[in-house]
Amino acid sequence: MGWLQAVDGYCERLGPGYWAEPVNALTNLAFVLAASLLWRRVRGLPLARAMCLVLGAIGVGSWLFHTHANRLTGLMDVLPILCFILLYVFAASRDMLGLRFWQAGLLTLGFFPWTAALLPVFRLVPGIGSSAGYAPVPVLILLYALLLRRRAAGTARGLAIGAGLLCLSLLARSLDGPLCGALPGGHAFPLASHERRDARVDDRGLPAAHACSLLPSRINGAKQAESSHVHRHRYRAQGGASGPYPGGRGRSSGPGG
After folding, report:
1. How far apart are CA 175 and CA 125, in angstroms?
2. In which band, very low, low, confident or very high, does the pLDDT at 240 lie, cut at 50, 70 and 90?
3. Buried (b) or exposed (e) across 117-151, using 16+ Cβ within 10 A?
4. Nearest Cα to 187, choosing from 237, 158, 151, 229?
5. Which terminus of the chain is more solvent-facing, meaning fewer CB atoms within 10 Å of its CB: N or C?
């Protein structure tokens, strides 16, 4: 499969067209908007500003994937998300836990073995599918919340809430495939296939990231549902791929936005 080979990873996509995933595409504007609003708030905090830039890049990369769904744009979608996670782990370790630069750096690198260790465990969860690739992230956020519960109770509470919202988002994302044929209009669930990571600043001026999800829904009539399934089967029969690609997008394996 080539880098520009079309992929079909979501119930919303009915064909290879630019606007085949309008909800998935348009909700990415939230990333760019959040990054723009926070840019001034984090003046004087270089790491927080870097997180804003990456937050905007997540929106652009995910927009490209959901309008030009192929292996290359899938990679452009996943890489900024990984960069944001790493930046956040470093910021939380250095500025919240009070670790030295090199200690925070080592802990950030530890995200890779952390994910590698937990990924096989989450893959055992029935129905989780490709969302297993994201599942270690809310667990890590909850771990930081636990460590901060005494020294920064407000930040710990915000992290715990963010982890809970991210879990809800992953649940909805996991239900996209199994419920695709159950609800009309090409949406298997009020759509929450995106993980919204909103950069914010806590009461001490330290950068923090909290996950939130956008849950727009689109309900059409039964006739539209029947028509959408016909178009979807025709599209896939004509070569629209559904499966993994570099970066792991697809219903069956790997993370994606």
Report:
1. 13
2. low
3. ebeeebeeeeebbbbbbbbbbbebbbebbebbeee
4. 229
5. N
Exposed (0-12), middle (13-18) or buried (19+): which is 241, by Cβ within 10 Å? middle
Instruction: Give the Å distances, CA to CA, from 7 to 2, 213, 240.
Output: 11, 23, 6
Strands (E), 78-218: 196-201, 207-212
Q: Which of 47, 86, 36, 37 is nearest to 207 (CA)?
A: 47
Predicted TM-score (pTM) of this structure: 0.74
Report the distance separating Cα 196 and Cα 170, nearest Å: 11
What six digits make up the tokens of 221? 């009539």
Helix (H) or strand (E) holding 180: none
- Tell me the C-alpha distance between 14 and 242, whole Å: 12
Question: Beta-strand (E) ranges in the chain?
Answer: 196-201, 207-212
Q: What is the pLDDT of residues 135-156, one digit of tens each?
A: 999 999 999 999 999 999 999 9
Among residues 162, 153, 139, 146, the alpha carbon closest in space to that of 208 is found at 162
